[in-house]
Specification:
By secondary structure, the protein is α/β, with parallel strands linked by helices. It has helices at 2-6, 18-23, 49-52, 61-73, 85-97, 111-128, 149-154, 158-161, 198-206, 232-243, 264-267, 295-304, 322-337, 340-356, 386-398, 419-433; strands spanning 28-32, 35-38, 43-46, 102-108, 136-140, 171-174, 211-216, 246-250, 274-277, 289-294, 364-370, 373-378, 400-401, 403-405, 408-411. The chain has 16 helices and 15 strands.
Length: 436
C-alpha cells in the first residue's frame, strides 16, 4: 500500500480530501455494465452512473469502436472557420430528440463550459435585439451550475463560492424550492409553486429591462435531488415570457433519460429557451458538453451580424471535436436501439420503492426522488459533512458507489439497471446505514 501511496502524490484531486484519500485510496481499475472493480479486484456496484453520466452502463464497445475509428480517420479538426462531418451529424441527431424548436447546438467540453456559454449567448441575444442593457442574471440558491466563474456566480452552493471572491456582478438569486412540509415527497411536491414568484419580485426590484436570463436545474441534482413543486417551472416560464427574460434549463444531470424521458423539459412539459447538456451526451466516455437553443435565439444573433463576419465571439479549441462527436453519435445509437429512456421510466417505480423504504431507518431524515434519480438526507454528526463522508467510505468498503454531497446521499444508477441490481443496492445501503 505504501508503494501505491507514493504514486499518488503528484495529482491534486478535484473535490476530494486529498490527504485522507492518499492514505487510504479508493482506486477504480476497470468497469463493465453496472460494476466497477477496484485495484484489489473487488467488484463494486455503481449506484451513481459514474457521476450521473454513464447512462448506458460501463464498457460499451460500440463507443470504443466508434472513437477508435474516428481517431484513425480524423483525429482533430479546428473548430474556428472549419468543420467536420461528425459534429454536424451529432447536432442533427440532438435536434431530433430535443424538445420543441430547440434545434441549434453549440458544443463545449463540459457542463461548466456549457453554462458559461449559455450565459454569454443570452447577453449576445439581447444585444442583437437592441437591448444590450439586459446584463443581469438570475440563479437560484442551492443550485449547482459547474465550476467556472459564470457557473459559480449563478449557482448557490456556498462552499463552491466562498473561496473565490464575489463572482460576476449583477447576479441575483431565487430561493431554493425545498420546504419542510415537502419531506418524503415522492415526485413533485404538492406545495411550493408560489416560490416561482420570487422571479416576479426580482423583476420589480431590478427592472425586467435589465434581466437577461433565469437559469435553473429542473431538478436540483448535486444538492440532493430537489424536485420542483407542481406548477413551479410553468410559473417561471410564464414570468419569463411576460418580461422577455430567457429561461435556461441546466440539464447536465437530468438529460438523456434520467427522468424517464429524453429531457426533464419533456417530463415537466415546460419548454425553456436553452438547455445545457453534458455527461450522458457521450455516456461519460469522452468529455463533451453543449448548449442547445431555440431557433429564434440562433437566428437573431446570426442575422444581426454583417454578412461574412463572425456572429458570436466565443468558442473552445475542442468545441465539437471529432472523437467526442463520434462518442456522442454512438451513445445516441445505444439509447435509441435499447430504448433506454423508456426503460428508465419502467424501472423508476421499483427504484423509488427501494429508496423511499429507507424512511424507516432513523439515520434518514428526508427522501426525494424522480425517475432514476433520488437523494436522501442523513442525520448529521458532530460537524456538517462528516457523516456523509463516513457513509461514502463504508459504502465503498461494502462494495457500492454513491454520490455524496455533504450529508446527502445521491443515487442515479445507469439506465440499464435491473431488479437484481436494485435489490443489491438496497442490501448494501441498509448494511451501511444500520451500522451507525
Amino acid at each position: 500500500m505504501q508503494d501505491i501511496a507514493n504514486t499518488l502524490e503528484n495529482q491534486w484531486m478535484p473535490f476530494t480530501a486529498n490527504r485522507d484519500f492518499k492514505e487510504n485510496p479508493r482506486l477504480l481499475a476497470r468497469a463493465e455494465g453496472m460494476y466497477y472493480w477496484d485495484h484489489h479486484g473487488r467488484k463494486i456496484i455503481d449506484g451513481a452512473a459514474g457521476m450521473f453520466c454513464v447512462t448506458a452502463g460501463h464498457g460499451r464497445k460500440e463507443i470504443a469502436e466508434a472513437t477508435s475509428r474516428q481517431l484513425t480517420e480524423l483525429d482533430y479538426s479546428p473548430p474556428f472557420q472549419f468543420g467536420h462531418p461528425a459534429a454536424f451529424a451529432l447536432s442533427r441527431r440532438l435536434s431530433s430528440i430535443l424538445p420543441g424548436d430547440i434545434n441549434h447546438v453549440f458544443f463545449t467540453n463540459s457542463g461548466s463550459e456549457a453554462v458559461d456559454s449559455a450565459l454569454k449567448i443570452s447577453l449576445a441575444y439581447h444585444r442583437a435585439r437592441g437591448e444590450g442593457q439586459r446584463m443581469r442574471f438570475v440563479g437560484r440558491e442551492r443550485a449547482y451550475h459547474g465550476v467556472n466563474f459564470g457557473g459559480i456566480s449563478v449557482a448557490g452552493m456556498v462552499k463552491n463560492r466562498e473561496a473565490f471572491g464575489l463572482g460576476l456582478p449583477g447576479v441575483v438569486h431565487l430561493r431554493h424550492t425545498w420546504l419542510p412540509e415537502q419531506r418524503f415527497s415522492r415526485g413533485e411536491p404538492e406545495v411550493g409553486a408560489e416560490l416561482a414568484d420570487d422571479l416576479q419580485r426580482l423583476v420589480e426590484l431590478h427592472g425586467a429591462e435589465n434581466i437577461a436570463c433565469c437559469i435553473v436545474e429542473p431538478i436540483a441534482g448535486s444538492v440532493g435531488c430537489i424536485v420542483p413543486p407542481k406548477g413551479y417551472l410553468k410559473r417561471l416560464r410564464e414570468i419569463c415570457d411576460r418580461h422577455g427574460i430567457l429561461l435556461i434549463f441546466d440539464e447536465v444531470i437530468t438529460g438523456f433519460g434520467r427522468t424517464g424521458k429524453a429531457f426533464a423539459a419533456d417530463s415537466f412539459e415546460v419548454l425553456p429557451d436553452m438547455i445545457t447538456i453534458a455527461k450522458g451526451l457521450t455516456n461519460g466516455n469522452v468529455p463533451m458538453g453543449a448548449v442547445a437553443v431555440r431557433d429564434h435565439i440562433y437566428e437573431t444573433i446570426v442575422d444581426a451580424a454583417p454578412e461574412g463576419s463572425v456572429e458570436l465571439f466565443h468558442g473552445y479549441t475542442y468545441s465539437g471535436c471529432p472523437v467526442a462527436s463520434a462518442a456522442g453519435l454512438a451513445a445516441l445509437d445505444i439509447y435509441d436501439k435499447e430504448d433506454l429512456f423508456a426503460r428508465a421510466a419502467r424501472m423508476s417505480p421499483s427504484f423509488l420503492d427501494m429508496v423511499f423504504a429507507l424512511r424507516e431507518l432513523s439515520i434518514v431524515t428526508d427522501i426525494r426522488g424522480y425517475g432514476l434519480l433520488a437523494g436522501f438526507d442523513l442525520a448529521p454528526d458532530k460537524s456538517p459533512g462528516m457523516r456523509g463522508y463516513e457513509v461514502l467510505q463504508r459504502l465503498f468498503e461494502a462494495g457500492m458507489i454513491a454520490k455524496l454531497t455533504g450529508d446527502v446521499v445521491l443515487l442515479s444508477p445507469p439506465l440499464i439497471v435491473e431488479e437484481s441490481h436494485i435489490d443489491e443496492m438496497d442490501g448494501k445501503l441498509r448494511k451501511v446505514l444500520n451500522s451507525f
